[in-house]
Amino acid sequence: MTQSVVVQVGQCGNQIGCRFWDLALREHAHVNKRGLYDEALSSFFQNVDSRKNEGVTCGVGGKIQHLKARAVLVDMEEGVVNEILQGPLREVFDSGQLLTDVSGSGNNWATGHMTYGSAYREQIVDKLRKAAEHCDCLQCFFLIHSMGGGTGSGLGTRVLGLLEEEFPEVCRIVTSIYPSAEDDVITSPYNSVLAMSALTEHADCVLPVENQSLVDIVNKIKRMSHCGKLGSVIKTDSTIISGQGGFSGAEKPFDSMNNIVANLLLNITSSARFEGSLNMDLNEIAMNLVPFPRLHYLVPSLTPLYPLADVSVPTRRLDQMFSDAFSKDHQLIREDPKHSLYLACALMLRGNVQMSDLRRNIERLKLSLPFVSWNQEGWKTGLCSVPPVGHSHFLLALANNTCVKATFMELRERFTKLYRKKAHLHHYLHVEGMEQNMFSEAISSLSSLIEEYNHLDGTKGRLMPDAHRLSIAR
């Protein structure tokens, strides 16, 4: 069995990460009735006997002693990490996994990337190495961060570069939260574009999530619950109704939004944590969905977004779930995928689903989904037998689709409005190591990425000529 390490950077990254660990523990508690430390738990948790000096790690098969998350928590403010340490998940982490400062990055990519990235480089590398040493077979690093602030964008991408430098053979999957156009951080376009350059160069896969898309989904579910649509009430343990999720105190405004992203991580890791008739290895995601190294942005969609409490409402038909997964209403970015081009797509199913159901729905969907001509069979599938708590079935779709370029184009436009006036630029250039050409290089990288998607979109609806075959030397 392989193991993975979750790296949480910044306020947003740590809040989402905390909710992921809370949901993962609930799932394992629901399945693991005997209290044994099994291979499913070992994929994301250590079993430590804290009665012994320095805590001895116990092997698979014994009783659960003291579970510790395979995680590294980084934030340049103490608030969120302190909340975690005072909440119900405080025993899941120890001080060796945490790195905090007190002053924060001031919504400045340069401060996070240059100042804190240089000051804490050795400590970050040390914590990453220790997390890796506790793994028998390290398969993947999951990095969670936001793009709009200073620590998440700046230090988050610095950590990503260190992961590639220190562990070049280990898969790097990044979950990035993109700010909305109405974001209250004025400099978020600068931070996001500077971060994009590093994501394009150093990540194996990026799962882009738009804040506005999360807001839309939360509002939609709340409207349905309040107006009684479908004659039903939403269960309190649903994907949207989050509770505190590992924090103490009252629920905060962003908890429901963070909860959706945590469920994305919960379901993408399900094959690594549980048995299934067709489990998908995490390394297979990049191998099958990323035909070109820079085009590794995978659009996630989740369905169902809510389990209904009213038993008189029939369970959503499996076929409808597949259709919903390709609707923009269930996507975590707002663009319509059916108007763009698919390079490849993964379907990760949980629950009692037959291969025949999977094949039948893929054949049905293929008729309406535009795939590139050279990859018409670009489907990757996974079946995990254990559904999430509160659901009978669940489907996560990851689509390498050119619709993501619309998000990048909007970001470029917002960046250009600021940069044309050189507004707020002095805050960045005062940081040691930051130079103005980094801005032009970052926007050039983003424009090049958009152009690559444009080129592929231009092939939509026409057959690509066969490439010339190489002659074999005799």
Q: Which short descriptors sum up this protein?
A:
13 strands, 16 helices, four-stranded mixed sheet, alpha/beta, 474 residues, six-stranded parallel sheet, 16% strand, globular
Secondary-structure class: alpha/beta
Uncertain spans, ≥5 residues at pLDDT below 50? 308-314, 463-471
Care to count the β-strands? Answer: 13
Question: Distance between termini?
Answer: 45 Å
Secondary structure tally, helices:
16
Shape: globular
Strand content: 15-25%
Question: How much helix is in the residues?
Answer: 40-55%
In sequence order, what are the helices and strands, one letter per element? EHHEEEEHEHHEHEHEHHHHEHEHEEHHH
Mean pLDDT: 88
With strands numbered from the N-terminus, the spatial order across the biggest sheet is: 6-5-1-7-8-9
Radius of gyration: 22 Å
Characterize the main sheet: 6 strands, parallel
Structural write-up:
The protein is an alpha/beta fold and 474 residues long. The protein contains 16 helices and 13 strands. It has a six-stranded parallel sheet with strand order 6-5-1-7-8-9. The protein has a four-stranded mixed sheet with strand order 10-13-11-12, with helices on both faces. Strands 3-2-4 form a three-stranded antiparallel sheet, with no helix packed on it. Helix 3 links the parallel strand 5 and strand 6. Helix 1 packs parallel to helix 3, helix 6 packs parallel to helix 7 and helix 12 crosses helix 13. It is globular, with a radius of gyration of 22 Å. The termini are far apart.
